[in-house]
């Protein structure tokens, strides 16, 4: 089995519960959504150049780099054919696996894996244009190592995020992260909103890598 990898690199994780820790990133080609803010739209089309890499080849690369954390991202990594087998192979080799997923893919078939990964699952807010694709049945499967992330463009997105958290009791399952669409909303507005609504369960997160490197830079 091989997988369509558009880039792989070692960096600090700029997002999620392991932000600031070293991680290896494997970005898979292709996505079923088209969020209007997507910072990896170049990776989302099926004609994007990629390398077809095997489980063995990727594990050799990870081992050479002495990584512990592995983040599978994309595109939408959970749409990659055979990704469940790859997740099991990474888990049984001792890697700590995190999946960045867009909230549209049903997690039930991944939830029961022997080496269940940590999911950082977006709920696509109204301003993304993709909210209609959300699979809200996923919320009941989430564990404390998972995260629900709302990438917000506006106060209206924050209002929707808060309503979704209340409706699905997300804080009873896992942490809630709020992240600004880069350059589209001042993070101060998010903090002010959190203060105004006493939103103690939510956590603001800025994409750290976009402050360390030029925001458009790939491979970091
Ligand atoms: C590029 S996506 C790939 C994984 C998956 N397709 C998803 O949407 O979660 C990784 C993360 O980057 C976030 N993201 C993409 N573009 C962004 C932007 N312009 N500003 C902030 N976050 C962004 C997404 O919302 C998602 O949480
Ligand atoms: N440094 C760094 N951290 C990240 N965390 C999630 C990323 C992603 O694109 O999914 C990402 C990324 O692209 N770079
Ligand atoms: S789901 Fe993820 S990769 Fe796909 S368009 Fe949205 S942000 Fe980009
Ligand atoms: Mg990114």
TrEMBL record:
Task of the protein: Catalyzes the complex heterocyclic radical-mediated conversion of 6-carboxy-5,6,7,8-tetrahydropterin (CPH4) to 7-carboxy-7-deazaguanine (CDG), a step common to the biosynthetic pathways of all 7-deazapurine-containing compounds.
Binding of Mg(2+), residues: 40
Catalytic activity reported: 6-carboxy-5,6,7,8-tetrahydropterin + H(+) = 7-carboxy-7-carbaguanine + NH4(+)
Keyword Magnesium part of the UniProt annotation: yes
Chain sites annotated for binding [4Fe-4S] cluster: 31, 35, 38
Pathway in which the depicted protein is active: Purine metabolism; 7-cyano-7-deazaguanine biosynthesis
Keyword check for Transferase: no
Cofactor note: Binds 1 S-adenosyl-L-methionine per subunit.
EC number(s) stated in the UniProt entry for this protein: 4.3.99.3
Similarity field: Belongs to the radical SAM superfamily. 7-carboxy-7-deazaguanine synthase family.
The protein's assembly and partners: Homodimer.
Sorted UniProt keywords: 4Fe-4S, Iron, Iron-sulfur, Lyase, Magnesium, Metal-binding, Queuosine biosynthesis, S-adenosyl-L-methionine
Binding annotation for substrate: 12-14, 27, 73
Binding site for S-adenosyl-L-methionine: 37-39, 75
The protein, known as: 7-carboxy-7-deazaguanine synthase
Domain of life: Bacteria
């Amino acid at each position: 089995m091989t997988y369509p990898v558009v880039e792989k690199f070692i960096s600090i994780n700029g997002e999620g519960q392991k932000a600031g820790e070293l991680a290896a990133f494997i970005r898979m080609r292709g996505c079923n959504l088209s969020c209007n803010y997507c910072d990896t739209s170049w990776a989302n089309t099926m004609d994007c150049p990629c390398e077809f890499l095997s489980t063995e080849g990727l594990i050799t690369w990870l081992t050479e780099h002495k990584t512990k954390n592995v983040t599978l991202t994309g595109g939408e990594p959970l749409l990659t054919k055979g990704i469940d087998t790859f997740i099991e192979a990474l888990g049984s080799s001792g890697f700590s696996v995190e999946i960045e997923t867009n909230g549209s893919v049903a997690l039930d078939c991944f939830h029961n894996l022997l080496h269940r990964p940590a999911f950082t699952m977006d709920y696509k807010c109204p301003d993304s244009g993709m909210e209609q694709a959300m699979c809200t049945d996923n919320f009941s499967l989430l564990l404390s190592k998972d995260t629900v992330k709302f990438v917000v463009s506006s106060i209206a997105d924050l209002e929707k995020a808060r309503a979704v958290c209340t409706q699905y009791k997300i804080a009873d399952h896992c942490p809630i992260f709020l992240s600004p669409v880069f350059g589209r909303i001042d993070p101060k507005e998010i903090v002010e909103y959190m203060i105004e609504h006493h939103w103690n369960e939510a956590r603001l997160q800025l994409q750290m890598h976009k402050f360390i490197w030029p925001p458009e830079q790939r491979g970091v």
